[in-house]
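This protein record is not my work; I was only asked to verify it. Take the sequence as given and treat only the tokens as open to question. I have pasted the whole thing underneath without changing anything:
***
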Amino acid sequence: MRRSQFIKKATACFLVCAMLIPIMSNTMTVSAKTDISIDEYEDIVGTYSIDESMENYEEYLSHTDGTRPADTYICEAKDYVRFTSGEGEENAVPEEYTDYEGMEGVSVLTDESGLIEYEVTVQNAGLYELSLDYYPVEGKNTEIQRSIFVDGELPYEELALVEFSRIWSNEITEYATSAEGIRTLKWETDNQGNDLKPSLEENPAWITSYVYDSNGYIPDRLSIYLSAGTHTITILSIKEPMLLRRPILSNSEEVQDYQTVKAEWEQNGAVDTSGQLIRLEAENADRTSSQMLYPVQDKSSPAVYPSSAKVLKNNTIGGNSWLLRLPKAVFIISPCLRNRISRRDCLFPERLKSMVKFHLRK
């Protein structure tokens, strides 16, 4: 009898534990910071491509249910739980800047090597998009490169190398209006009358950028899955310094289709315009995300404006540079629109995401 009761109690205990396992698996708590050395992190980044166990982003997503919570988690830059300097010094104290270049709050300078870690406690399990508020401080004029780890592990191979852009501006700022009424930049010319390629100069400003596939194969923002509980986000520096204001975990709102938004506009009294034409010449780009995107002289067709049978004209932008990889977003801003959209918002579409009201369906 006693043996029978013991077996029943043991069985009940086993069943209770079995029922708790799925619940516990959806909740994870880690220590405030990882104990993985920077050499070990760099070794993971250096060998991920030959590690057969490393998943790609598509495989990684297949293990999730696709849930995207509406929660937003903001990590203040100064609230790091671990900082390793570019010289490899653990528990180093980074340089901090208060209200730098119009950005309120404290920002932390991360070197072109080293790491910084943040702790985040997630209430609802699911996929989250990671974005950074950062300022591209002076470096070697190349892309800023980082690796992203979650709880000391590289979630998938695309996070081994992610890039953050700098901002480049055209040195030519004076405009002229053609006989056709088209506004173009006044390019410098050589003694034959050919337009000269202008120099691009770095024009740093605060940027909010999401994490993308640096190879350009995945056009969407990359996400990471976080179970409910406390997690550690590690940002490992690969190349170039960055002034970091805050990492953010969130999910963007779904963009509506055109017909839905058009109906809302009409309901609010919007009417079609007439007699207005806004023309933006690509070579007049106000700013770009790469110094490889500069004005190009295309003579393939007289339909390309401006064109000339006698001299070379700057009439397109980028050329074959667009083929190197999916380019980071480039915004071409008409000067007449600057009173409607701030310069900070115009840099890249991340900040304009909230202004995009619809998408086109094929």
Summary: Residues 26-167+203-252 form a domain with the Jelly Rolls fold (CATH 2.60.120.260).
